[in-house]
Amino acid sequence: LSPELSMMVDRILDFPRQDVEHAMVPRSRVVAIESDETIGALRERMASGHSRYPVMEEGRIVGVAHLVDVLELDDVDAPVTSIMRPALVIPELMPLPNALAA
């Protein structure tokens, strides 16, 4: 097997034994949007290539904005809270397959 394919197979086989913490992005690297920002501001931020953004209020996550919902709304002045979805809270030590099923 090529090194790339070998690594992919290893990751696939390890997946059921990994927990959520293994797949988490450090908070310092997370790109988020504030709850008082508009859909227009979020669209500009989404040009960076992500499809989901945590919506923050006073330093805590209050929801998640998804690209699909942003593209369906024409009102760029609407608050991002008008399209945000609930944020899932998943324990860090939950196995990845269980988290994906949540």
From TrEMBL:
InterPro entries: CBS_dom, CBS_dom_sf, UPF0053_domain. Residues 24-82 form the CBS domain. It comes from Aeromicrobium phragmitis. The keyword Electron transport does not apply. Coiled coil: none annotated. Keywords: CBS domain. Transmembrane segments: none annotated. This is CBS domain-containing protein.
